[in-house]
Amino acid sequence: MKSTTTATDNTGVSTESEHGEAADSLANRFTAFLLQSQALKFGDFTLKSGRQSPYFINAGAFNDGRKIATLGVFYAERIAASVSAGTLPGDIDTVFGPAYKGIPLAVSTAIALTSMHDTQIGYTFDRKEVKDHGDGGMLVGTQLRDGMKVLLVDDVMTAGTAVREVVPKIKATADVEIVGLILAVDRMEKTKDSGRSAVSAVEQEFGFPVIPIANVREIFAAAEQLTDAKGQPLLSADLAQRAKDYLAQYGA
């Protein structure tokens, strides 16, 4: 017996599926949230790399309390699932968000883990410049100590630059174990200088898992099930094909 699940919010984005379980998957729910927040857009976009992309993700769209709180809930859900699966340890001491975009991610994720998953956890972020007065130092929040387990959070990884900048800062502060990195979206694209994705390159270089809430293939699959307030598909057949062509050319 087929069941249909439909959800609509005040942005007019609806999720329709012949299977309620599929519509309720993390990737589907997260894709709907990205669209509702206008953090995910389909069209023609020139990326910093010069590539012409049929989609764009703008983390700056999470610009109010409701959106950033909801985003933290998604990060916490992915973390809890990864702990249950054994990919991440259950005794993480603090969530670290690289300045500046990672700061609200670390705070909202720590709040969601504490309030919804009964996980007492700290949050930490770095300053761009060392503070030489007051409490001083390079870090804000839970201070790092030898032996701590630290989980990184970031939005979208393009080349892994932010990770390569922040890991030495963390290691210079204390002898901690970085247990993983949670991303909002894995673009699954080859870097310019290799056939590997940035995620794969970072995992190999640093030895910890990089775990997205959703990858771009999951997002496109979910978007094909979404409709606007008039019941029209949000992802047209033309856009869906362009997405496939883009990943065929640049996907890792």
From TrEMBL:
The keyword Transferase applies. Pathway: Pyrimidine metabolism; UMP biosynthesis via de novo pathway; UMP from orotate: step 1/2. Orotate binds at residues 158, 187. 5-phospho-alpha-D-ribose 1-diphosphate binds at residues 48, 100-101, 127-128, 131, 133, 154-162. Residues 77-206 form the Phosphoribosyltransferase domain. InterPro entries: OPRT, Or_phspho_trans_dom, PRTase-like, PRTase_dom. Residues 1-15 have a biased composition (Polar residues). GO terms for biological process: 'de novo' pyrimidine nucleobase biosynthetic process; 'de novo' UMP biosynthetic process; pyrimidine ribonucleoside biosynthetic process. The keyword Transferase applies. It catalyses: orotidine 5'-phosphate + diphosphate = orotate + 5-phospho-alpha-D-ribose 1-diphosphate. GO terms for cellular component: cytoplasm. Homodimer. This is Orotate phosphoribosyltransferase. The lineage of its organism: Bacteria, Bacillati, Actinomycetota, Actinomycetes, Bifidobacteriales. The gene is pyrE.
